[in-house]
Write a structure and sequence with these properties.
By secondary structure, this protein is α+β, with helices and mostly antiparallel strands. Helix content is 23%, strand content 29%. The strands form three sheets. An eight-stranded mixed β-sheet has the order 2-1-3-6-7-8-9-10, with helices on both faces. A two-stranded antiparallel sheet has the order 4-5.
Length: 179
């Protein structure tokens, strides 16, 4: 299963959902939840809005989109409240995607086209196969980052930086295991 996690001004909300998993699920899970944890902490400390995990559903033209991690500022939410409808009509200001067998780069290019057209300010694309990340902003070329770079969340979350190395560190122990 997966764990849905939302933060609102009323605190954390979560529940378990069943989902199909692929062979890369443990690796993807570690990356997604490491990013989710860091974004949630920044947003909660600064009272900025809502953060959703991999099951936060957004309505696009002809499909429902569930990014790995998303952020929506309070100002984008009617009455600054957690949406009650099961599929949200707002789009995230920040969308984060971790590539996997079921989530290809080509699909993300298509999603980004619609998201940026509808107002998404920033997308991060994390590639576990190459330990790289891309930053996508409307009207600009993607910026490829390596393990020595940091993801900048401006303009969606000004002041939030996430070292790419920290994302992939979630897949390894902090120090080598003792034998």
């Amino acid at each position: 299963g997966s764990f849905e996690l939302f933060y609102s001004h009323n605190g954390w909300h979560g529940n378990m959902k069943s989902m199909n998993t692929t062979l890369d699920a443990p690796r993807t899970f570690g990356l997604v939840h490491g990013i989710l944890y860091r974004v949630c902490n920044f947003v909660a400390q600064n009272h900025l809005g809502l953060v959703a995990g991999p099951k936060g559903p957004f309505q696009l033209r002809n499909s429902v989109y569930c990014p790995s991690v998303s952020f929506i500022p309070w100002s984008a939410l009617p009455d600054c409240e957690l949406p009650e409808e099961p599929i949200w009509s707002v789009v995230p200001t920040l969308a984060v995607e971790v590539l996997s067998e079921s989530n290809t780069h080509e699909e993300m290019v298509q999603k980004w086209a619609e998201l940026s057209e509808r107002g998404t300010q920033l997308m991060w694309l994390i590639d576990p196969a190459t330990s790289t990340a891309e930053i996508w902003r409307p009207g600009a070329d993607a910026i490829l980052l390596t393990i020595s770079d940091s993801l900048d969340a401006t303009p969606a979350l000004p002041g939030f930086l996430l070292p790419v190395a920290d994302i992939f560190a979630a897949l390894k122990p902090a120090r080598p295991p003792q034998s």
